[in-house]
């Protein structure tokens, strides 16, 4: 028997001490020794939101904008936000008003029209065995928790117009909802309320600050690259970071870039502007960006060139599947990590149900064994080979066992 190495002992100790909801899930090996700079998104990455509270506020603003700007019926004021209907990864068919849960191959597993779920036969008739082409522009994929308000509103509007039998352009409906929400995120009312009442919408977490300090101790450069403007970023970071630091949060980062306009930041050639840390005022900038700087806009290509970094030496962490992960991997080759807040709830549930899944797996294996026996006996009866009465009796016994197994599986599911 080979004695465990020191590193193996450390790994085992870590596995025992870190709860499953705090672990990092890896689908590609990453050697942190080769990483010189770690970039972070802010919203839903470094700054954790109280999702139900924030999305409920966004939802209320969205309702009023639809009524005021697009003359939607005032009855939608009675709509109630449902924060458990929209999850990351859902696909919205904007031409039919359908909400789809699909697997990696595009096959529809669960579908609803608005909030009304299709029955088995109804879904089978509509989507059948064929997958959908998720690259088609008619499909909108929910990439982030920021989409809960718009997804819920769109589904409820589909329900509403169906209930009054009014023909509606589902595509136009979706575009209007989406534009209103995008505008709400850019305007003062939503983020202004967060800045005014951070305790209502933001969640402090010292572990995030401690993790960044450890990265610094290991010699990593830290960069904040966010789409939020400087004023909002400053207030959010002050609330979440400053209580755990002996210095202003800006000093923790080697580079701060606000209003970066991701994912365009990674592919376009926009210029940087300097930001005055005291006033937030912008000034034109024509020189090289430097460590310790505070900038707005810009692009990843200039960052790499001016700071002498290779794409493989940069790791970027964010919450947006498309804007923070897919675009980077496909266009510029930065290493990436996705922050999935929902896993903190889902992983413990999966672990608690491991015994249940094992029981179901065992029953399905038993069912397969019984079905093989049943098939063998049916062949004997069909060929009229051997003792027919004995074969039929055994077949009836196996049939009864199969029914029992099916009942047990159904009860567990």
List the helices and strands and how they pair.
Elements lengths: L5 H12 L19 E4 L7 E2 L1 H20 L20 E3 L4 E5 L5 E6 L2 E2 L2 H8 L11 E3 L6 H16 L6 H17 L1 H9 L1 H4 E2 L2 H12 L3 E5 L4 H12 L13 E4 L13 E4 L6 E3 L9 E4 L2 H7 L7 E5 L2 H11 L3 E4 L4 H10 L1 H30 L4 H25 L1
Parallel strand pairs: 1-9, 1-14, 9-10, 10-13, 14-15
Antiparallel strand pairs: 2-8, 3-4, 3-7, 4-5, 5-6, 11-12, 11-13
Helix pairs in contact: 2-4, 2-5, 4-5, 13-14
What does this structure look like?
This protein is of the alpha/beta class and 413 residues long. The protein folds into 3 domains: 31-49 and 203-341, HAD superfamily/HAD-like (Rossmann fold); 51-198, no CATH class; 353-412. The chain is built from 14 helices and 15 strands. An 8-stranded mixed sheet has the order 12-11-13-10-9-1-14-15, sandwiched between helices. The radius of gyration is 27 Å and the shape is globular. The model is unreliable at 6-11 (pLDDT under 50).
Number of DSSP helical runs: 14
- The succession of helices and strands, N to C, reads HEEHEEEEHEHHHHEHEHEEEEHEHEHHH
Q: How many E-type strands? A: 15
Low-confidence stretches: 6-11
Mean pLDDT: 90
Number of individual domains: 3
For the sheet with most strands, the description reads: 8 strands, mixed
CATH class of the largest domain: Alpha Beta
Q: What percent strand?
A: 5-15%
Taking strands numbered 1, 2, ... along the chain, how are they ordered across the largest sheet? 12-11-13-10-9-1-14-15
**CATH-level-2 architecture of the largest domain:** 3-Layer(aba) Sandwich
């Amino acid at each position: 028997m080979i004695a465990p190495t020191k590193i193996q002992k450390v790994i085992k100790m870590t596995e025992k001490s870190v709860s499953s909801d705090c672990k990092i899930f890896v689908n590609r090996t990453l050697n942190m020794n080769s990483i010189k700079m770690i970039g972070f998104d802010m919203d839903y990455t470094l700054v954790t939101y109280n999702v139900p509270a924030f999305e409920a506020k966004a939802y209320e603003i969205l309702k009023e904008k639809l009524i005021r700007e697009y003359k939607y019926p005032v009855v939608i004021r009675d709509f109630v936000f449902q924060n458990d209907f929209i999850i990351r990864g859902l696909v919205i068919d904007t031409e039919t008003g359908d909400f789809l849960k699909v697997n990696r191959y595009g096959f529809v597993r669960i579908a609803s029209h608005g909030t009304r779920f299709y029955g088995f036969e109804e879904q089978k008739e509509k989507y059948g065995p064929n997958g959908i082409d998720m690259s088609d522009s008619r499909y909108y994929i929910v990439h982030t928790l920021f989409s809960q308000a718009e997804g819920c509103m769109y589904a409820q509007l589909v329900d509403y117009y169906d209930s009054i039998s009014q023909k509606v352009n589902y595509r136009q409906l979706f575009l209007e909802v989406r534009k209103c929400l995008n505008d709400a995120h850019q305007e003062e009312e939503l983020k202004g309320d967060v800045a005014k009442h951070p305790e209502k919408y933001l969640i402090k977490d010292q572990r995030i600050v401690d993790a960044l300090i450890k990265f610094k101790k290991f010699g990593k450069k830290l960069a904040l690259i966010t789409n939020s403007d400087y004023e909002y970023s400053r207030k959010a970071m002050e609330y979440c970071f400053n209580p755990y630091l002996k210095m202003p949060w800006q000093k923790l980062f080697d580079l701060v870039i606000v209003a970066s306009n991701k994912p365009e930041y990674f592919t376009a050639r926009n210029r940087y502007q300097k930001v005055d840390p005291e006033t937030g005022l912008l000034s034109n900038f024509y020189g090289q960006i430097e460590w310790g700087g505070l900038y707005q806009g810009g692009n990843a290509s200039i960052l790499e060139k001016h700071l002498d970094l290779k794409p493989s030496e940069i790791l970027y962490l964010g919450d947006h599947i498309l804007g923070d992960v897919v675009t980077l991997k496909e266009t510029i080759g930065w290493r990436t990590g996705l922050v999935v807040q929902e896993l903190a709830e889902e992983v413990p549930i999966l672990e608690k149900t491991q015994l249940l899944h094992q029981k179901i797996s065992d029953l399905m294996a038993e069912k397969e064994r019984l079905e093989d026996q049943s098939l063998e006996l049916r062949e004997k009866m069909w060929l009229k080979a051997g003792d027919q009465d004995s074969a039929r009796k055994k077949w009836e016994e196996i049939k009864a066992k199969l029914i029992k197994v099916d009942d047990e599986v159904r009860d567990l599911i």
